[in-house]
Design goal:
By secondary structure, the chain is an alpha/beta fold. It has two domains: 1-61, 2,3-Dihydroxybiphenyl 1,2-Dioxygenase, domain 1 (Roll), CATH 3.10.180; 68-142, 2,3-Dihydroxybiphenyl 1,2-Dioxygenase, domain 1, CATH 3.10.180. Helices cover 20% and strands 35% of the residues. The strands form three sheets. The protein has a four-stranded mixed sheet, with helices on one face. It has a three-stranded mixed sheet with strand order 5-9-8. A two-stranded antiparallel ribbon has the order 6-7. Strand 3 and strand 4 form a beta hairpin. The longest helix is centred in the first third of the chain and has 11 residues, at 15-25. The mean pLDDT is 93.
Length: 142
């Protein structure tokens, strides 16, 4: 039995502001923006290459405080390129860091040990991690 995470509900205070951030600054594809009634609006966005989407909305029966979701992680094949791309789009991000002998240290630390962090406009926290698996897929290496 496979269990796949396909949607994460992102608690936001302003759907239009969040939609603009996720689509324009992060480059997520807008899959759905539907309001089947005045009390319900669903906006689903997917990062390029991802099988998992985020949903922003109201009236979905989910009671979460905006800004309280932390630690959602995106994996990329080239952390330097992702850092430059998001920074160039105006996303406020941390420096690239790794876990070293004394905790968090600046710079890359090797396979699976390179990260940067950012928050959406409501304060929901994201982590971007470099993945050697994705890097190998990008380059055709095995």
């Amino acid at each position: 039995m496979d269990y796949k995470i396909e949607v994460i509900v992102m608690p936001v205070s302003d759907i239009d502001r969040a939609k603009a951030f996720y689509s324009e600054q992060l480059g997520f594809h807008v899959d759905v923006d539907d309001s089947p009634s005045p009390e319900v609006r669903i906006v689903q966005l997917t990062p390029p290459g991802s099988g998992c989407s985020v949903v922003l909305g109201k009236g979905m029966g989910v009671d979460m405080t905006p800004g309280t979701l932390k630690g959602v992680q995106i994996c990329v094949g080239d952390i330097d390129a992702a850092h430059a791309e998001l920074s160039g789009r105006g996303v406020e991000i941390s420096p690239i860091r790794h876990v070293g002998a004394n905790g968090w240290e600046d710079g890359k630390g090797g396979d699976w040990n390179a990260f940067f962090f950012f928050d959406d406009p409501d304060g929901n926290g994201w982590t971007v991690q470099e993945s050697p698996t994705i890097r190998a897929q990008m380059t055709g290496a095995s």
